[in-house]
Write a structure and sequence with these properties.
9% strand; alpha/beta; globular; single chain; Rossmann fold; five-stranded parallel sheet; 5 strands
Length: 274
């Protein structure tokens, strides 16, 4: 009888210990910040199938996406100060950031090409210096709101395929990604780098949407894998293969006869109006 009572008591005590631990478990809050890559502009159903949503679905996170088409690093800095975004950052456990690409594309691409063609790097250096200056405010602003959140900063891939232009833009993306690493070297532990650029460069698939800038359906899956692998190494996730609840759908701007992507989409809309 005593033995039976001891067993029953042990079971009750075990249950009492286990219940609070189970009850305290909660979904992690996952927030995306930055530009149209973060938003998912390369697919027709970004709200349901961009890479951020895939990551959230795979690991069971609560999810908020504050990516904005055309946002530069300075626009991201301003956005952090908006009440709803600031609150989401305060509540976040994980924050993914995609930024920097529009600093090149909006009003600077023409001069970068001209300058680089003649062997100079000043146009690229000026843009990167501006990105770095903004980064020196963006990361501390996020840390002030939430010092405990894990920040993932995505490297910028090269979307160009046109010979010559691609090589020039590669110099720009390399310089930007080096700037991210420079900040991290000077501020150890400030964020984790999600190696999106390396994953795109290593892929033998076409990962760029027909608009010649954004990740297509397959590109969003590749970014999701990069982030999932990083989160698993950080102990913030358990899966590395995306769980696709809704397939991303490629957005086609015009009839894809390709023609070298319609001459790189009219040479990126005449280099964003020069």
């Amino acid at each position: 009888m005593k033995k039976a009572l001891s067993v029953i008591l042990a079971v009750i005590l075990t249950a009492c210990v286990c219940v609070p631990a189970f009850a305290s478990s909660k979904k992690l809050n996952y927030v995306l910040l930055g530009d149209s890559i973060a938003f998912g502009s390369g697919i027709a159903n970004p709200g349901d199938a961009c890479y951020g949503k895939i990551v959230a679905n795979t690991n069971g996170y609560n999810y908020r996406n504050y990516g904005v088409d055309g946002a530069t690093t300075s626009a991201l800095l301003r956005r952090i100060g908006e009440a709803d975004v600031a609150q989401a950052i305060k509540n976040a456990d994980i924050i993914s950031i995609s930024t920097g690409g529009n600093n090149f594309l909006l009003g600077n691409m023409f001069w970068i090409i001209v300058n680089t063609l003649f062997g100079g790097t000043k146009a690229i250096d000026d843009v990167v210096d501006g990105v770095y200056a903004d980064l020196c405010q963006i990361i501390p602003a996020i840390k002030k709101l939430n010092p405990k959140a894990t920040i993932l900063l995505q490297t910028l891939y090269n979307p160009w395929k046109m010979a010559g232009i691609s090589a020039l833009y590669q110099k720009a993306t390399d310089a930007l990604n080096s700037c991210f690493r420079k900040y991290l070297k000077e501020n150890p532990g400030a964020f984790e780098i999600a190696e999106v650029a390396a994953a795109f460069a290593a892929s033998d698939k076409d990962l760029i949407a027909f608009d010649t800038i954004h990740p297509n359906a397959e590109g969003n899956k590749v970014i999701a894998r990069v982030i999932l692998k990083k989160l698993k190494t950080l102990g913030l996730g358990t899966k590395t293969e995306p769980v696709i609840l809704e397939e991303p759908i490629d957005k086609i701007s015009f009839n894809p006869g390709d023609y070298s992507r319609m001459a790189e989409y009219y040479l990126r809309m005449v280099l964003a109006f020069l």
